[in-house]
Amino acid sequence: MFRWSGAVQTSCPACGSVLVRHDLDLERVGTVGDVPPSMSRIQLGTEGTYNRMPFVVVGRIIYEYERGHWSEWHIRLADSSSAWLSDAQTEYAITKQVDSPGALPTADSYRPGQSVAVHGEQYAVGSITHALYSGVEGELPFEYWNKLQVAFVDLKGTGNGFATVDFSETPPLLFTGEYVSFDDLHLTNLRDDIIGGGPRATNVKGLNCPQCGAPIELRTGSLALSVACPSCAAILDAQDPNLAVLQQHQQRTGRVTPQIPLGTTGTLGGEPVQVIGFQVRGITVSGMEYRWREYLLWNAERGFRYLTEYDGHWNDVSVVKGAPKESGGRLPSVEYNGEQFKHFQSAVATTQFALGEFPWQVRTGDHVDADDYVSPPHMLSREATPDEVTWSLSTYTAPERIAESFKLAAPLPAPRGIFANQPNPKAGVARTLKRAFSIFAFTLIALMVARFVFARNEQVFTQVRQYSPASGDTGAFVTRVFTLGGRTSNAEIRIDTDLSNAWAYFNLALLAEDGSVGYDVGREVSNYRGIDDGEAWHEGSPNDKVVLPSVPPGQYYLRVEPERDLGDVNTPFSYTLAVRRDVPRAWPFLIALVILAVPVAFSYFRELTFEYGRWQESDHPWTTSSNDDDDDE
Amino acid sequence: MSKALYVIIGVIVIAGTAAAEWRGWGPSAVTEVKDVPRTVRNNPGSYRPHYTYFGSSYRRGK
User: Fold this and answer.
1) What is the per-residue pLDDT for A35?
2) I need a labelling partner for A304 at 20 to 30 A (CA). Which of A77, A548, B43, B54 fits?
3) Is the pLDDT reported for residue A46 higher than 90?
4) What's this model's pTM, rounded to 2 decimal places?
């Protein structure tokens, strides 16, 4: 019985016969063997929604590749169209076949990481997979039961865009769609025999290491491709019923004990996870070896994620579905989800030690080309092998949070040094202070403008005098009484002289008429100019002024006594005295501005010091040379 | 420095600046003298300034 009118092929769940429909006739074209065991919770009859449209799973094609098996679930949507739900190690994508894909390149012309245009869209080649057909079940929209090896090229678009070129037919088939999350599909009628909720698999296989006899648990069941014995650290083939030894010794490092023991369960980002694998990886830069530790975490519905630790710095790492957009330039960068990441470091990362189980064939000595791009607290890492390019997104996580997530008995060591994507603890401070400073600066400028507009700035007295010592003038005199009005404020005394190549000294006293208070001040006026060696020079000024602070209002007069240098004592000169009341000044506001700018500048200095330390560890260290292009971070 | 502390300092600095300008406060080499003799108006040469100017070679305070 066909559940979908458009189905061309179905298989009998009882006898394994493959039946193909020709109009009203059914033809038995062959048989299929047992369907390989699966850790997927999806099954025939599983229902869900995609883009708000209900669907039901009606068929499946199973492939085997180097990482195990993956399923292409054939789904029938509510509008009677069909699509494919790809389920590879809990990484999900929904695609639909493109009717007229145009000319597609041959499989061997693709290279991982290569940018290609397919059906009007830009993609990056994610992986080239040579898979073995393993079986079918349920209903399919075409005949598909007797394949052998099939090549697939997976293409990653921007965001969650995804496409795959299927070379099982000639010409090849193109499927386009997008990556989806398990939760977004709102799946029902799932298999319950796999998961009892959370990461704990109920069908854990109990095995013994053929090398040392120690018991080994496979928590991810058939998803595990290799397992490193927790006792002797031999790496075993998890797909082999007898756990064949793949690698006997791991001599690159001594035995390393994970800080989070294998099998530990915890909750990370609201998601229950279990530590199933641990490896030590390293890079060598300028002859120095840097090692970090990676923990492989497993959640049966949401798949794998990682924790990395280097010198006490922890990162929560997830594989990125789409392909970040790469751009060149002086400092290469990539864009992902609207976030710009700067290139930090490129190196060859080598696996040096492994424990636990892995969904790939782990080996010490495995190496990948790794490129890190940072945008704290995030880091995008690109790892490339000849067959695959994968991107992962790391989020810097405090060790306290890791310890709390896994309920570790002892606290984790404090971080040492500065890590590539460690958030700058000073960055927020400087930005916050800068915002407050902007408001303060605006206020100060507004106050200064208001002060200059509304200040009294009134000239209350002026007098022209001639000083002639030769005629017996002692110079000392008092002015008429004038009024300093308004509130207590400043008063400015200005002296304008006609002195040239001479100086004079003025003893000034602003005295209250009632004798209650006086303000004494002395001012030197000095004005010289000349030509030395054909070059004109000028020193001093014929004018001067002094501001008397906080002078109460009242009646005042000036007592003035000029003096001259002895060489010019008989040369008369004239001068003008002027008194102004409530004179506005700019410098108090400017000094206030500088005082308020100091904490902001200091915060930026501390922030830059942190960034300097960060980038010193990168391929682009900051230098003090102004000609170096790398110090423009 | 926390934002709160900076805001407090900022408010104090701005308020102090505004008050200083309003009242005419400021640093000065001026010497304030109380109870000036009334004879100054009749005999200006008899007045003895009270300041001391160290900016050059002058030493006042006769």
Assistant:
1) 66
2) A77
3) yes
4) 0.69
CA distance B14 to chain A (A): 7
> pLDDT digits over A415-455, tens only?
999 999 999 988 888 888 999 999 999 999 999 999 999 99
At residue B41, the pLDDT reads: 83
Q: With cut-offs at 50, 70 and 90, classify the pLDDT of residue A112.
A: confident
Q: Which long-range contacts (CB under 8 A, 24 or more apart) does A108-115 make?
A: A110/A153, A110/A165, A112/A384, A112/A385, A112/A386, A112/A387, A112/A388, A112/A389, A113/A382, A113/A384, A113/A389
CATH of region A466-583, choose from 1.20.120, 1.25.40, 2.60.120, 2.60.40: 2.60.120
- Considering CB atoms only, which of B1, B30, B51 is closest to A599? B1
Using CA atoms, how far apart are residues B16 and A440, in angstroms rounded to an integer? 13
Structure tokens at A445: 């400028």
pLDDT in tens, A157-183: 877 889 999 988 888 999 999 999 888
On chain B, the residues whose CB falls within 8 A of the CB of A592 are 13-14, 16-17
Q: HSE of A587 in the Cβ direction (CA atoms, 13 Å)?
A: 6
Measured between CA atoms, how close is B8 to chain A, in angstroms?
11
| d(C-alpha A238, C-alpha A218), whole Å | 8
Beta-carbon separation of B34 and A517 below 8 A: yes
- pLDDT value of position A232: 85
Contact A476 B44 (CB under 8 A): yes
Q: For chains A and B, count residue pairs whose Cβ atoms are closer than 8 Å.
A: 140
Query: Rounded distance, CA A477 to CA B28, Å?
Result: 24
Q: How many residues does chain A have?
A: 633
| CB within 8 Å: B44 and A490 | no
CA angle A390, A395, A396 (to 5 degrees): 135
Q: How many beta carbons lie within 10 A of that of residue A360, not counting itself?
A: 16
CB contact under 8 A, B9 and A561: no
Out of B10, B25, B31, the one facing A440 most closely (by C-beta) is B10
What are the boundaries of each domain within chain A? 9-185, 205-405, 427-452+588-631, 466-583
Cα–Cα distance between A214 and B34 in angstroms, integer? 100
Task: Say which of A476, A548, A561 has its CB closest to residue B28.
Answer: A548
For A581, the token pair is 């009341």
Give the span between the Cα atoms of A512 and A180, in whole angstroms. Answer: 87
Of A432, A505, A549, which has the smallest distance from its Cβ to B30's Cβ?
A: A549
Residue at A131: amino acid letter = A
- Cis amide linkage into residue A101, ω under 30° from 0: no
Interface of B with A (CB under 8 A): 1-3, 6-7, 9-10, 13-14, 16-18, 20-38, 40-41, 44-45, 47, 49-51, 53, 55-56, 58, 60
pLDDT at B46: 76
Convert the pLDDT of each residue in A244-264 to its tens digit. 888 876 655 677 889 999 999
